[in-house]
Amino acid sequence: MAEVSAQGHQPEYLFWVGCAGAFDKRYQKVTRAFAQILNAANIDYAVLGTEETCTGDPAKRAGNEMLFQMQAMQVIETLNGYGVKKVICTCPHCFNIIKNEYPELGGDYEVIHYSAFIQQLVDRDQIKVNLEGLKNKRITYHDPCYLGRGNGIYEAPRKVINHFNIDYREMKRTKSFSLCCGAGGAQMFKEAEKGQKEVYEERTSDVLATGANIVATACPFCMTMLTDGIKFANKEEEVINMDIAELIAQNLME
User: Fold this and answer.
1) Is the pLDDT of residue 58 over 70?
2) For domain 130-253, is the CATH number 3.40.1350?
3) What's the angle, vertex CA 132, arms to CA 164 and CA 244, rounded to 5?
4) Between 128 and which of 22, 50, 236, 253 could a Cys-Cys bridge form, CB atoms 3.0 to 4.6 Å apart?
5) Distance (Å, rounded) from C-alpha 215 to C-alpha 141?
6) DSSP states of 108-151 as a string?
7) Is the pLDDT at 254 greater than 80, yes or no?
8) Which SS3 state, helix, strand or coil, does residue 13 take?
9) What's the mean pLDDT in 35-47?
10) What rounded mean pLDDT belongs to the chain?
């Protein structure tokens, strides 16, 4: 963003990469996949690079309101300084907090989750995918809490997946009745509480019950937890976890 701004250009979109997209090696692949999609569609966008800092979501969910506001104000100052109007987020947690909690602190933007953005690109024929690219695959989709119950976005990810000619299978707990992966609300960063089973184990059992060999996700937290669940169940040879951006990027047509 600093480079294009110095050239006098105002990109239409800011792609908010997020902490996981920047630092987690597995989710860096998702960041690259989504950037590949944006480039294929000739979208005018930029990223903040080293100027991007945490949105403050984990601090707020853990109960540290002061730290959240300090982090949020720093982000808002940066975005407003560049005159950002539209923000695309790959992380539902970043999406939720920038969309719903930044406005009262002076950060008012048009915020879109990348699943909805990809759906728009597909619907408008701005990208072409090989519809047979996932042929003979059985796919299920896990609803991220902050995307689904938190913001009512259920259909966009499914429309992206079902754009392919595939065997799509819903889990028994889905949409507004979906089960959390176990990482939300800052649970990712604390020790497990006493109980008979980890949440990710329970959710992975829902995945395995579908008979799917791909579980699609749209959140870095969900990807981490379900990948752990698949490993815990010793099903790594049978089931893989892929982000919806990877499903599209791997099957893009020129």
Assistant:
1) yes
2) no
3) 40
4) 253
5) 6
6) --EEEEHHHHHHHHHHTTSSEE-TTTTTT-EEEEPPPTTTTTTT
7) no
8) strand
9) 98
10) 93
C-alpha distance from residue 121 to each of 2, 118, 207 (Å): 27, 5, 28
Can you tell me which residue has the tokens 């728009």? 120
Q: Rounded CA gap, 106 and 84, in Å?
A: 13
Helices vs. strands in the chain: H and E counts, helices first? 11, 10
Q: Which CATH number fits domain 2-118: 3.40.50.970, 3.20.20.70, 3.40.50.720, 3.40.50.1860?
A: 3.40.50.1860
Confidence of residue 153 (pLDDT cuts 50, 70, 90): very high
**Residue 15: which H helix or E strand, with range?**
strand 13-16
Give mean pLDDT, residues 203-229: 94
Between 165 and 15, name the one with better pLDDT.
15
CB 40 within 8 A of CB 124: no
Query: What's the predicted TM-score (pTM) here?
Result: 0.93
The reply to whether domains 2-118 and 130-253 share a CATH topology is: yes
The backbone torsions φ and ψ at residue 40, rounded to the nearest 5 degrees and listed phi first, read: -65, -30
